[in-house]
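the four lines:
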Amino acid sequence: MTKIWIKTLAAIILIGLLIAFPKVMGVLNTNIFIGFAIMALFAVSLNLMLGYTGLLSFGHAMFFGLGAYTTALSLKHIDNLPISMALLLGVLGAVVCAVIVSPLLVRLSGTAFSMLTLAFGQLMYIVCLKFREVTGGADGLGGFPVPDLKIPFTGGIDMTDPVNFYYFAITVLGGCILLIWRFTKTPIGSVMISIRDNDNRVDYLGFHVPSVKSLVFIVSGGFAGAAGAIYALFQNMVSTDGVLGLFTSFNPIIMTIIGGVSSFTGPIIGAGLLTILEEFLLRYTDRIALFNGLVLILMIKFAPGGIMGIWDGVYRKWFKRRTLS
Amino acid sequence: MDATTAMYVGQIMHGLAYGMLLFLVASGLTLIFGMMGILNLAHASFFMLSAYFCVSVIHMGGNFWLALLAAPIITAVIGVMVERFLLRGIHASGHIGELILTVGVMMVIMEAVQVFWGTDSHMISVPSALAGMVNIFGLQYPLYRLFVIFLALAILGLLVLFLFKTKMGMIIRAGVSDAEMVEALGINMPLVFMMVFAAGTWLAGVAGVAISPLLSVFPGMADQMGMDAFVVVVVGGFGSLLGAFVSALFFGLLNSFGIQFLPRIAPVLMFVFMVLVLSFKPKGLFGERE
Amino acid sequence: MNILETKDLLFDYSGHKVLNGVNLEIREGERHAVIGPNGAGKTTLFNVITGSYKPSSGSIKFQGREISGMKPYQLNRMGVGRSFQITSTFAKQTVFQNARMGILSKQKVRFNPFSKVDKMHKITNETNLLLEQSNLAESADMPAGLLSYGKNRALEICLALSTDPQLVMLDEPTAGISKDETKTLVELIRKLTENKTMVIIEHDMDVVFSLADRITVLHHGEVLACDAPEVIKNDPFVKQAYLGTLEV
Amino acid sequence: MKRCFFLLRGVLTLLVLGMLVTSAWASDALMDRMADFDPSNPVVPKGDTIKIGHLNPFSGPAAMNGELYHIALHWVAHDLNKQGGVMVDGKLKKIEIIKGDTMSKPINAKKAAERLILGDKVDLLWGSTGSHISLVCQQTAAKYKKIYVSALSISDSLMDAENFNRYTFHTPWTTSQAAKSLAYFYAKRPEKKFYILCQDYSFGHALAEKFKGYLKEFRPDAEIVGEDYHPLFTKDFAPYLEKIKASGAEVIFSGDWMPDSVNLLKQSRDSGLNLPFANMYMDDPITLGVVGVEGSAGLVNANQYMINDMDPRTRELNKVWNHLHDSKWEEPYNSSLYVWPLGVVASAINTTYWMMDVVERAGSTDPEKIIATWEGDKYNSFAGVLEMRACDHVTVRDTYVSEFSHPAKWFDNFSYIDKIVTVPSYVVEPPLPEGLDRCKK
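prediction for all of em together
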């Protein structure tokens, strides 16, 4: 029983900290935290494919960008659209794209899969860049209204106020991360892990591997779309380079690798570390990408399991438990 | 030679010139992938690195020709060091580890360049011997771009001779189809890998030096060329030199005539081709290996 | 009635006829062994039947239905289970999780993204039952990658049977394990394939003769003989196929 | 009568003498003040200072723009700090410049602006190249009620009805002023066939539209023989140049800025296309130095500031700047790009002096006081009169166009500004944005 007790206690403390955060840390750090939470969900949604199903996607920004653009465009063109609807439309946009793309993708695996995702990612980037009338091209799309969050009985909560938005964003992003956690605990979750370890045997056990892969692809795309939608609401500005660029696809991979590929919380830790690293470095140098690159190389070379891998190694040495996450 | 045919010939020549440079970069990329299964996303950064070395060589008093000799060799040395100390030990985590490591290398090179050579564009003037125009049945065409085409053709010839006529070339071709088997036959594959990586980076280095007088050398030059070369390798087929050559010319001409006739859609077309090929023929047009 | 029949099964691998018109009959509920010298085409026959390769021509009938060219997952759902010569289990997952994969497929819980798999007691109980039958219960929480080679072979067979197939095809189950471990494994196979039809490829003649009701001898991609074990034992042609030319 | 004549002459000479002395004195004063100015590592005052956030790309493809305007801001800060600072809230405060790296990406611009406002608590924001980036800075500043001086991007859309906000002041000229200046210049010129090649984003498209409109007005007989928009930071212009050659154009109109401007000019001259460019940003020594005298001959450059020696204060600025460049400055400010205070950099210095003058007259960095002082303000800058239009916060000024020729006073290794055509402000004044109620008469 103690295990569950510890878990609930930890959960309560965590929620307490999250609620107190904006009061304690001030508006600037709150905004940075929201940025971190968005990237955490984005990285966790990528890890659903990379860490759990063994599929490395170089085009995950496609869903993030589509989520952001659909939300931004729907708020811009449909007046007094409630914020929750805009969010849902964002997720829907990403899911529809995943449904269209997945049949082509799931037949491949390994490097071919990665290359095709990169191709799709860049295709989406160029199309958005070129059709400026709709997407605002290099200028991006800004100034769309961020409507108040309407709660049935009380009046609307002003979403442009950073602290209110913080609570809204954290509930949505935290909720999504929990949903993904639960998803990995379901039967389809264990099938995914088996596909990562040995997709051939899974085929012989009666599972239709391509349809499982496309389900994972769509779920992961949908959650990336949610992260993109929150991003659009948070920044009130969506630019092709910001949400669809090559590095928008690479960042979650870097976070997952640094945090730990084979664990659920790895990407979250990776996202936190990169955000802190960036905030810290920005004061001293403009060369943030240089440090990120170096950290990435060192991690892959000396600690392929990432921070969680190191923690797991240490944990095993001290507690002699035979676990192989 | 009235205006429209002059324009067509001009665009074809530009297409060939850009296609040839694309081939130099893509050939290195596809050889390395064919041999070692590593798709080196940092390959275009070596192309840029060599251009910056060319700037330094010329800064320190050397002329363009010395730079054309020295810069690719320095880049190849750095390429070998990257393969030797970084890429070699991580076959364990499979292709995913290697792919992501090359992303790290790309990021480091792109930023390091700005630290050492600053952020503004460096100009390299066309070498005097090649400056000016030449008259080809009525069309004025810059001599330097012709030089680039012939340089690339010469290197292609060298490459083909090396691969198909020498013992080492045979080993490399065998390695492309089955590296383990060749190693089993007692050939020191790690050494061959290192040489292929050096050759691949050297090719990218030559392209980097060749392109600098045409364009200015500035931190953003790797992105465009990197993505184009990547599309060429994927469409041409991983590990296939012929595939790289054919698709490099195709995309070089597409780049020129795309801007000429359908400016808005030209870049999109390139990626549409890539998606189509990858979806229906993952091995690429001439590739043997996924 | 034959549960599995192949008619003039042909498979040529770029010119070389690996299977040259194989007619195989497996009766319902029998234990059938397929033997033959190396390179006779045993494993290829196996892979063609279980859907890994598409045959060049000829038909395969399972319970009366034509299955040539079907995908492995379709065959499995129809009731064909198989094991692999080279152990192919889920190294990073525990033995329990390995077995549970088969049970999930058996219970057709393939796309359920809602309920927690650990909370599905029906599945958990059935998995534990399977593990006990395969006497792997005590190493249930051990990752498959850390099992001994012998135990891994047992897990391999357990997986093959986990989807409760009518026809079980075992590809050299006892390959590479010691004499006494073979004994326990043979007992395990006999126990697990109680009322099922089994086809086994095996080189160890003791295993073949202790398990098989009938034996098919394959040589150069053709069926040399198909009869009871005693008959096969002293069939001159079989000896010749194995020992080369007959000393006169 | 004679005596009063004699008296008058005396006064006149005294006046001239005084002028000479003050300019001499003044120039010595500026020389003394700026003697220790080193842009590579500027003196950063601490304590209670007027903090100015400098938003520009300091990394990424257009990183050199950050470096370019860094010297402009620090020149003004250094000069005023040497005079004790600016009287604000009853105290003499020094000026402190804090960098905010936009990385040429709208999202990073928003983050940098927020960090400057909330983290460093800046009093004023100043920036930024790239209209799409400047728009983000402007919106972020307004969100936290901070003054944003949009000193570099010149898109009209930045101050139109949709994007206008009362905390933003537009000190440079605008796209329409630039386009109208060039069209005005070509009114009396023989060339008839124009080819438009601009960057494929809002600034490029807006500039092209405005130029076509004004050209029809000034030259109904002129003809646009072709129009292309190339992606930002294009590498290979050859296909575009080939199209231009075939189109028979006489002038190429391009609003490209660094690094596109230098690539375009260099590649066109290398491929034998010697047509003049009607441009706004091909006036820096790096770009022109590459193509030499013939390559830069005939370029028609329009600008909000052109280096000249008419006004004593500009003469003084040029003298001190050139002296410091030759004697003192190190990497990267000792390069040919910074020999003289030219075009965009000098204009930035000019408008920054204006900004600080407004702050001094407002006597505070409180946004409301600054807005009240700056709206409708007329300032006699060292490059002509600058007027801040009250209703839409856009600056109206004379603009200048010049055809480069050789030999020119300032540089000898390439053609440069010689005869300057001034376009009076009433001609080039931008139209009031419709739909902005503040501007309804």
